[in-house]
Design goal:
single chain; 335 residues; alpha/beta; CBS-domain; 2 domains; 15 strands
Length: 335
């Protein structure tokens, strides 16, 4: 995951000093907020004189067209427009090397991206109150990240607001492409230590598994008694998660069936596949995690196993299934 440093969150250091220090830490981009102020392009020009690091420009204006020529002139690499200010109208952005995105606050429906999907390559989720540096990441945005990924799998997700070392780890595990870090990074007593924290593979976490899990209604769940072999395979195919979960009438977790479980069940009856039963492709003793476990506990469980774990069922105090966590991005980039 790329880290974009919010330069204006530090009001003490001269711009050139801040840019030079962040470049020494190999920052991925410089985030600049343009609150309807063309003067920010003077700062971009100053940055260009001493740095080749990409500019990540957030334009908050009811008339974003007035900045198009400046975007092209300064060859800004990333530009996002604040949706709530442009009042839902479509924008014909100028052709350039620039990647364009749509910024939305936490209360704006993600479906508003539909009108911009042809020209915009990413969404910027504002995960605290916009314009307030040092805010706390709002937990409902974990579900919004997952929802947007499902709605627009070909588009990238950027996040701005409340990104510290703990949140950064979770965002990376969810496949977020870029995160803006403001006060945590640029106002830290040691920016080097803060940058290391944003990139670390393990962090202490107070977020719980239930904060980031996929909710039960979005999961492939089948009845332990009565489902057919065809129903299991079709469910795995339809949900495209690589597994199905099984519960009894009380909602307790009874087993899982992954692609690997199906393969092992078929191999068991290669001489006569018609002999394969539903129970042959179900793991009745799956690894699972409690919904109140922390993200750190979850990572410790995953890394303690000698085999890759691609998903974990989540249960409550009564062993009832309440959700699941998938690890495709975590396995790929973190473990």
């Amino acid at each position: 995951m790329k880290i974009s440093a919010s330069l204006y969150s530090n009001k003490e250091k001269p711009l050139e000093d801040l840019v030079t220090e962040l470049d020494m830490l190999r920052i991925d981009a410089f985030h600049i907020d343009c609150n309807d102020n063309p003067g920010v392009f003077d700062d971009i020009a100053r940055i260009r004189k001493i740095s080749q690091t990409p500019i990540d420009l957030h334009i908050i204006s009811s008339q974003p067209e007035r900045y198009f020529d400046l975007i092209v002139k300064h060859q800004v690499e990333y530009v996002q427009f604040q949706y709530e200010n442009i009042k839902a109208r479509r924008l014909e952005v100028p052709p350039a090397e620039t990647q364009y995105g749509l910024a939305v606050v936490s209360d704006t429906p993600l479906e508003v991206f539909e009108n911009y999907r042809d020209n915009f390559s990413f969404i910027l989720l504002m995960t605290t109150t916009p314009g307030m540096s040092g805010g706390v990441f709002r937990k409902e945005n974990f579900n919004r990240i997952r929802k947007f990924s499902k709605l627009y799998p070909e588009k990238k997700i950027h996040v701005d607001g409340g990104v510290n070392d703990e949140v950064s780890f979770i965002l990376r595990s969810m496949g977020v492409d870029s995160a803006v870090s403001g006060s945590f990074l640029v106002n830290h007593q040691s920016m080097g230590a803060a940058m290391m924290g944003l990139k670390l593979k393990e962090v202490h976490s107070h977020y719980q598994v239930k904060d980031i899990m996929i909710e039960l209604k979005a999961l492939p769940v089948l009845n332990w008694d009565g489902c057919t072999f065809k129903e299991v395979l079709q469910t795995i195919e339809d949900f495209n998660l690589g597994f199905a979960l099984f519960t009894d009438q009380s909602g307790q977790l009874r087993g899982v069936s992954s692609n690997a479980d199906v393969r092992r069940g078929l191999i068991k009856h290669l001489e006569d596949l018609n002999q394969t039963r539903v129970k042959d492709i179900i793991n009745a003793n799956p690894i699972y995690i409690h919904e109140k476990a922390t993200v750190s506990d979850m990572l410790a469980l995953v890394t303690s196993k000698s085999f890759p774990i691609l998903f974990l069922p989540v249960t409550d105090d009564h062993h009832r299934l309440t959700g699941a966590v998938t690890f495709n991005n975590l396995i790929r980039g973190e473990v």
